Amino acid sequence: MNRRPFHRASEAERREDLIRATLDCIAETGLQGATVRQIAARAGVTGGLIRHYFTSKNQMVEAAYIETIASMNGAVIAAADPATGDARTRLRKFIVANVSPPVTDPRTLSLWAAFISHVRVDPGFADIHRQNYLSFLKALEDLIEEVLNDSGRPTPRAECHEYAIAINGLIDGLWLEGTLAGDLFDDTALPKIALRSVEALLGGISLGKDNNES
């Protein structure tokens, strides 16, 4: 009989397992329903072990919120990497990534809704949200500024900031469309709408298209 090789989980692996269990419980029962006992049972550990890694449920939930943000932004940040192409290509990929799976995912929306309701009442959550928002906005501003410069339209940073706010609002709206009513759209509908809208906001600058886009 073949036996699975023994693997002793590292501190980091155990912590990640607990965060995943926390996310599963929040997705199923919301923040209030996700008790330490429920999370421990899902992770297959004792409450005492949880306290070894997290001083409180709130700290554990904050870590889960950070993990959710990192998961949502992973593909988006990768799309903006300079190695992926010129500024227009990177802005196009950045926009498309925000309105495509895995970012547009019902489970992700459930988690986001649970966390965002906590932002208004918890300073720790508010700080995490603010830092993420400002980081996201700066990345978008940088791309917009580079695209406008490359198009022969040098634009003051303050104006790029306003463009970024407007485009972020557009992205948020289409992201909700894609997660709440995704069955009403094919795989290319929302990315096309997003790109055309961004191009219009930027004064008709074309962001090009991938080979598989019609």
What key attributes describe this structure?
214 residues, mainly alpha, Arc Repressor Mutant, subunit A, Tetracycline Repressor, domain 2, 2 domains, elongated, disordered N terminus
Task: Spell out the blueprint of helices and strands.
Layout: H1 11-33, H2 36-43, H3 47-53, H4 57-79, H5 87-98, H6 106-119, H7 123-150, H8 157-180, H9 189-201
Helix pairs in contact: 1-2, 1-4, 1-6, 4-5, 4-7, 5-7, 5-9, 6-7, 7-8, 8-9
Written account of the structure:
The protein is mainly alpha-helical and 214 residues long. It has two domains: 10-55, Homeodomain-like (Arc Repressor Mutant, subunit A); 65-201, Tetracycline Repressor, domain 2, CATH 1.10.357. Helices cover 71% and strands 0% of the residues. The protein has nine helices and no strands. It has helices spanning 11-33, 36-43, 47-53, 57-79, 87-98, 106-119, 123-150, 157-180, 189-201. Helix 1 packs across helix 6, helix 5 (87-98) crosses helix 9 (189-201) and helix 6 (106-119) crosses helix 7. The relative contact order is 0.10.
Short description:
The chain is mainly α and 214 residues long. The chain is 71% helix and 0% strand.
